Structures are given as C-alpha cells and as structure tokens.
Amino acid sequence: MLVFEAKLKGSDEQYEKLDEAIRTARFIRNSCLRYWMDNKGVGKYELSAYCAVLSKDFSFANNLNSMARQASAERAWSAISRFYDNCKKNASKKGFPRFKKHQTHGSVEYKTTGYKLSDDRQTITFTDGFKAGSFRLWGTRDLHFYQLNQIKRVRVVRRADGYYAQFCLDVERVENREATGKTIGLDVGLAHFYTDSDGQTIENPRHLRKSEKSLKRLGRKLSKTKKGDALSLSFAERLVEKGSKNRIKRRNRLSRKHLKVSRQRKDFAVKLARCVIQSNDLVAYEDLMVRNMVKNRKLSKSISDAAWSAFRDWLEYFGKVFGVATVAVPPHYTSANCSNCGEVVKKSLSTRTHKCHHCGFVLDRDWNAARNILEIGLRTVGHTGTLNASGDIDLCLGEETPLSKPSRGKRKPKE
Ligand SMILES: [Zn+2]
C-alpha cells in the first residue's frame, strides 16, 4: 500500500464542511463503540448494520457517504479487536477502546465513492451530502504515475496548519538491489541514536533536542492562558475569534510545532532507514515494545523513543521494498551478555564499557549489545553466527528466549 498526501486548497466555508464530515465520522465511530459496550456479543457485522440505523435516525449522519460511514464503523471495530487481541495475549496494557473527543484534528475516510478526482489529478470534488465541493490539490505530482482505479481510499485529515487528502494506493512497491553480503545489528541508546555491530554510531539529530526544548516552552505558555471553552467552539466561531483569543493562538502555535517536529522526525527516519537497508542484507534491532518494559521505564515516551519507532517503521517498510530481512529481537540480556564468549556479565545502566571477567573481552557497552542483537537476529532467520569464526557461540539467553540453538557449521543460503 502506497500513500500520497496533498494539501487541500479551498474556502473557509468549504473547510467548515470538511469539519462537519470529520465530526460525523467521529460521531459514528463513537456511537458504534457505545453500541458495542451496551450490547453483548456485538461484532464487526452488527456494527456495520448499525451504521444504517444511525443514518436513518440522524440526518447529518446520512449526509456522510455510505462507504465513509462503513469506514468509521470499521475504525471502531479495529479499536475493539485490538483490545480483544491484547486481552488474549494478556498484555500489561489492554487499551480499552476510548471515545474520541472533539479535537482540533481528526480525519474522515472515503473509500471509492463520495468523491471524484479530476483526470489531471489537480482537483478533488466531494460529492456526498456535506457538499464540500471542489478543492485544488497541492503536491500530487506522484499521483500521475497511477491509474484512478488504483486509489482504494482517500482520507481527509485535519492538521494544525490545514486540511490534507491522503491517497492510499493498492500498489506493491518492489525494487531490485544487489546483495551486499553484509549484516548489521542496531542498539538504541541514550548517548547515540544507535550503535551498530561494527561499532559505528549515529548521533541523535540535533533538531530533536532543540524541538524538545521549544515544545516544553510553548506548553508552559499555553498552560498560563485562560482555559475558557475555546475547544468547544465551532470552526466559524473560531474564525471570528470568540473565547480566549490568546489560548487559541497559543494552542495553534503548539500544534504547529508538534507538526513540524513530526515532519523532521519522519525526514530523518526515512533517510537513515533507506540508507541502512540499502547497504545490508539483514538488519536486526531490539523489539522496542518489549524493550521499554525491560530496560528503563524512564526512557519511554521521550522524544527520541518516538524518533526510534518512526525509524523502525521505515526500516520495515524499506526492508519489504528492497527485499532485505529485518528482525526485531527480544531485548533480554542483549547488553548483559558478552558478545565474545556468551557469559553473562551483569552491569548497571551507568556502566558504559563491557568488561568480561570470563574471557577478558572489552568493548563499548552499546557496541557489545549491537553484536548480540545481530547474533540473535541471524539465528532467528535461520542463519548461523558470523561473529565468531570458531563457531563457539552460546549467548546464554536463559529461559525467556523462544529461539532454538543454532545449528553450527554450514551457513544456510538465503532464500
Ligand atoms: Zn566474555
């Protein structure tokens, strides 16, 4: 699935109508959630049928294109099924589905009807009951390479700096690349963005630090303004600037900054991920979800964690595109074990150097971890180790590892 995004250029009156559509989509999603909570045994099909009931009972719901209504019900269902999955897996956070509140951002998803894209891909016209009309599209050059019938979904997204259309195309992107014969393990740290199994480090991008500071500053400024009920104002009311004017201004500035940070993060992640994938045949890294529980609770939710998870998403994306194996390995013992002899060498978080008292091996802490990560990654995909030529690899992973011992000796050819 490929996604292209374009900014929608229209009048304020038109934007207000898009807002109504977004509000309606949220209303349907929330109503479906409520219906599921109040009635036992409600599943995907019942929610889908409930859409029809809603559109009869509420005229504004009827304004939304019928497939967009279905898409909203599907969103409710995906939140519910995610919750069910977490219950089955007995995850620590179950994520009970929540109602979406009225916010200054949101989205509505159209499938193949309810809009029309012009042949030159310059204009999109929404044809459902909200009558939002035609918008100029900014930044759709890439759309020209594809047929209109390849567009499976169009999502209208409201952000701090305007309205966007995302076009989801049913295309598998596959690119050829020469095998490099190289494999790499990545360890995420605090000091560096990552350290790889060859000892190379990538620094944390400086703009992330800067942004973190200014986000905090803007957040403080916002909390000083009068709350009022600025958020409950409609789009039109906000245009004539009723309510706490200062707060609206501050909030908007903060959201714009958030937007900027996420764009910078994406830019950094895309470039780095593409580079790592193109120069390796296998990339191994820690499973971040597990990592947060295991390593350091203070680390979670920080801005660099967000950068890492964006990076990981792009690694996996480019991995598929270029046919490179990507392996997320369980993080247990990756920094404790000696990457030379496999013995456990316990160390505190502040110990920066790995010194093995079994074999005398000394290496930077993160570098050692990256070597372990690569080793586990290689086993997972059915290779044997490459780090120790002697073949004497035993990482003492304990009982927590689901991995079987590697067969030693011959390296299996890549399929
Ligand atoms: Zn050792």
Structural key phrases:
2 domains, alpha+beta, 415 residues, single chain, binds zinc ion, five-stranded mixed beta sheet, 10 helices, 41% helix
Question: What does this protein structure show overall?
Answer:
This protein has 2 domains: 2-169, no CATH class; 183-380, no CATH class. The chain contains 10 helices and 14 strands. Helix 1 (12-38) crosses helix 2 (44-57), helix 1 crosses helix 4 and helix 7 (245-278) crosses helix 9 (303-322). With 415 residues, the protein is of the alpha+beta class. The relative contact order is 0.10. It has helices at residues 12-38, 44-57, 59-63, 66-89, 206-224, 235-239, 245-278, 288-294, 303-322, 365-380; strands at 2-9, 106-110, 115-117, 123-126, 133-138, 151-159, 162-169, 183-187, 194-196, 201-202, 282-286, 325-329, 353-355, 362-364. It is 41% helix and 17% strand. Mean pLDDT is 80; it is low at 236-243, 297-301 and 383-415. A 7-stranded antiparallel beta sheet has the order 2-6-7-1-5-4-3. The protein has a 5-stranded mixed beta sheet with strand order 10-9-8-11-12. Bound molecules: zinc ion (ZN). Zinc ion binds at residues 338, 340-341, 343, 356, 358-359, 361. Zinc ion is lined by residues 338, 340-341, 343, 356, 358-359, 361.
